[in-house]
Amino acid sequence: MTENRAAINIRKIESGLLTAGDSMDEDLISAIEERLDEAKAARAAGDDQEAIAITNKILERMEKTETSA
Predict the structure, then answer these.
(1) How far apart, in whole angstroms, are the C-alpha atoms of residue 63 and residue 43?
(2) Are 55 and 9 in contact (CB under 8 A)?
(3) Do residues 51 and 6 touch, judged by C-beta distance below 8 A?
(4) Confidence of residue 43 (pLDDT cuts 50, 70, 90)
(5) Whole-angstrom Cα distance, residue 3 to residue 48?
(6) What percent of the chain has pLDDT over 90?
């Protein structure tokens, strides 16, 4: 279950970055991509809980950005 949640979150983030277009600041996009790489590395290392924690924080930040735009 947790492995699937990590994968789902990663896909949501990647999709969100593709559709963000000009609505997100480049610095924010870079920060998200950096954290996303960390989540992917955690997942690859078998630490799905860490990957989920990282991706949940990214998704929260992306949601805040969408609602404030």
Answers:
(1) 23
(2) yes
(3) yes
(4) very high
(5) 6
(6) 71
